[in-house]
């Protein structure tokens, strides 16, 4: 009996010691990157009401921490200018954890569907050359393990790794090329968190609160067809892959998605804006959100791709967003363009100019629809970001005009002093104008830096 009691006591004490150990979420590992010059939250779990210390080597400061009665703890630390490597040590009564090779720099979340997930191993242009030369020890890569959940989670699984030919080839190619350009211009560590998942619609990345506030979005989601690569259940990737990261400080987000929302294209702007806003609310941070306009492709629906591209253009009405146009690097037979270099570069140029304040004077957007004026039976179309506007080819194509009945007709167009003059013999009283509206339409209008014009459809004209 005494022996039995002794064994029970030993087991109890052993269990208590295990419970008392400090535990960190999966995003905190060796080789990680923390956002520079800001307040960063360190957090995790331990025994309720346990006292321990956190030491940060960049300022040689030790902080006393006490776990709450919910077994959770968190502490805010100030990060310095970009640099490193540093150490962070968590020291308690039962264990000690030291995170080594910690860098301070820019941390960006890289999300979306397969074109963001697409790696060099999935096949990209100049694949062997890009892999061989991917030695960037100050670019750090974190791939989030794929998980779905019906409810918001608190932790993710993954490991930070320095960018090498071995680690780069399994990572998002767009994100890698984005970081490579940033590091070249900023000369600081760049941390990338990749949680992209192929074939996903935006609904799975959007928290349930959005659908509760906007039930019409839940209704529109019913048009999205199930597929064999991922569930289409609302919010489950937000819960599993985004919610656990919202305490981790980021500098911004890049996003490449939209192909899977061609089934409910008309609702994409509303959904997308609400998704971005919800993420910012959860992070409590109006961080920059830069996204890729989907490329022309032969979808089942003749117009769905064009509608999504226009919905993405309209989402630029949300503050602190930017869009990289890609219609010139597409192939309508393959939904995955191989040229991921220019996609990453264009996203990086937008970030460098709009967020980091470098590349001033350089144009980073293709021509964007600005306004239209009806002049008799023709329409004058004005663009922003259109210095040196020109057309590739002999004739300006892809413009259409609608009549008073809302019927659309192909139109002839000409350039005059940076303005496009559009007319159609069948339309005497134009009511709207659109450009590159079909799913497979590849823009032929470019500005002086060689960036293509965006698909658009005007509001009804007077």
Automatic annotation (TrEMBL):
Q: Which InterPro entries match?
A: SASA, SGNH_hydro_sf, SIAE
Gene3D superfamilies linked to this entry: SGNH hydrolase (3.40.50.1110)
- Which keywords label this protein? Hydrolase, Signal
Biological processes, Gene Ontology terms: carbohydrate metabolic process
User: Which part of the chain is the Sialate O-acetylesterase domain?
Assistant: 106-348
Fetch the Pfam families from UniProt.
Answer: SASA
SUPFAM superfamilies noted in UniProt: SGNH hydrolase (SSF52266)
The region annotated as signal peptide is 1-20
Q: Is Signal one of the keywords?
A: yes
For this UniProt entry, the molecular function terms from Gene Ontology, in alphabetical order, are: sialate O-acetylesterase activity
Key word Signal present:
yes
List the protein's name: Sialate O-acetylesterase
Q: Which organism is it from?
A: Maribacter litoralis
């Amino acid at each position: 009996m005494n022996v039995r009691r002794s064994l029970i006591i030993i087991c109890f004490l052993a269990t208590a010691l295990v419970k008392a150990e400090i535990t960190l979420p999966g995003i905190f590992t060796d080789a990680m990157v923390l956002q520079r010059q800001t307040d960063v939250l360190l957090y995790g779990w331990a025994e309720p009401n346990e006292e321990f210390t956190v030491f940060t080597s960049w300022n040689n400061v030790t902080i006393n921490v006490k776990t709450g009665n919910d077994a959770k703890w968190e502490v805010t630390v100030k990060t310095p200018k970009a640099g490193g490597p540093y150490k962070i040590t968590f020291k308690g009564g039962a264990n000690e954890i030291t995170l080594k090779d910690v860098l301070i720099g820019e941390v960006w979340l890289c999300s979306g569907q397969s074109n963001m997930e697409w790696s060099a191993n999935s096949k990209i242009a100049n694949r062997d050359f890009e892999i061989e030369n991917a030695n960037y020890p100050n670019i750090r890569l974190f791939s989030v393990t794929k998980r779905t959940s019906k409810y918001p989670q608190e932790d993710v699984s993954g490991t930070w790794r320095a960018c090498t030919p071995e680690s780069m080839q399994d990572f998002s190619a767009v994100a890698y090329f984005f970081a490579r350009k940033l590091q070249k211009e900023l000369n600081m560590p760049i941390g990338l968190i990749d949680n992209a998942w192929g074939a996903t619609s935006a609904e799975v990345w959007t928290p349930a609160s959005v659908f509760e506030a906007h039930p019409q979005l839940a209704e529109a989601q019913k048009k999205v067809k199930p597929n064999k690569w991922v569930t289409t259940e609302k919010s489950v990737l937000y819960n599993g892959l985004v919610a656990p990261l919202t305490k981790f400080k980021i500098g911004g987000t890049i996003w490449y998605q939209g192909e899977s929302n061609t089934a409910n294209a008309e609702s994409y702007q509303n959904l997308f804006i609400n998704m971005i806003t919800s993420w910012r609310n959860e992070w409590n941070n109006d961080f920059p959100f830069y996204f890729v306009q989907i490329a022309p492709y032969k979808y089942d629906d003749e117009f769905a791709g064009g509608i999504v591209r226009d919905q993405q253009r309209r989402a630029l009405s949300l503050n602190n967003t930017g869009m990289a146009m890609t219609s010139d690097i597409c192939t309508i037979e393959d939904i995955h363009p191989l040229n991921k270099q220019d996609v990453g570069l264009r996203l990086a140029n937008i970030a460098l100019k709009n967020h980091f304040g470098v590349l001033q004077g350089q144009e980073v957007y293709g021509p964007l629809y600005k306004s239209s004026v009806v002049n008799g039976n023709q329409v004058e179309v004005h663009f922003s970001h259109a210095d040196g506007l020109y057309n590739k080819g002999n004739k300006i194509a892809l413009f259409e005009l609608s009549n008073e009945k809302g019927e659309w007709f192909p139109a002839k167009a000409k350039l005059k002093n940076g303005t496009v003059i559009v007319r159609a013999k069948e339309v005497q009283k134009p009511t709207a104008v659109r450009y590159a509206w079909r799913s497979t339409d590849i823009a032929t209008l470019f500005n002086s830096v060689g960036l293509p014009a965006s698909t658009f459809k005007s509001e009804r004209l007077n």
